[in-house]
Amino acid sequence: QRNEQKSSMIRATPLIRQAERAINRNPQLYGPGPVARYATGIGAMDPLKGLVVCAAQGLAVGLAGGLVYNVVYGNPGLQAIEDYYIENPPR
Questions:
Q1: Backbone CA torsion sign across 35, 37, 39, 43
Q2: Is 44:38 a contact under the CB 8 Å cutoff?
Q3: What is the maximal distance between C-alpha atoms in the chain?
Q4: Is 69 helix (H, G, I), strand (E, B) or coil?
Q5: Who's near 45: CB < 8 A, 6+ residues apart?
Q6: Rounded to an integer, what distance in angstroms lies between the CA atom of residue 91 and that of residue 89?
Q7: What's the 3-state SS for 29-58?
Q8: Helix, strand or coil for residue 22?
Q9: What mean pLDDT is reported for the chain?
Q10: pTM over the 0.70 mark
């Protein structure tokens, strides 16, 4: 019988061995442990609350952008339609 050992799906090449040895020891970036970055802001909220906050912020930014566009440009598409009907009145 063959002595079967657990083997990795990836063959151990020098590049793989070097990547396994690479450890970032910057405590400001990773904190204690290999990947101990903690979420802040929306990422730290409960999923449903984060979704609601993100959707509300997106809606607020969209409405503010639309309002600014209407104030600055005066809705040129609507003005073009009105000008057309002034030049070509309906019969």
A1: negative
A2: yes
A3: 95
A4: helix
A5: 53
A6: 6
A7: HHCCCCCCCCCCHHHHCCHHHHHHHHHHHH
A8: coil
A9: 78
A10: no
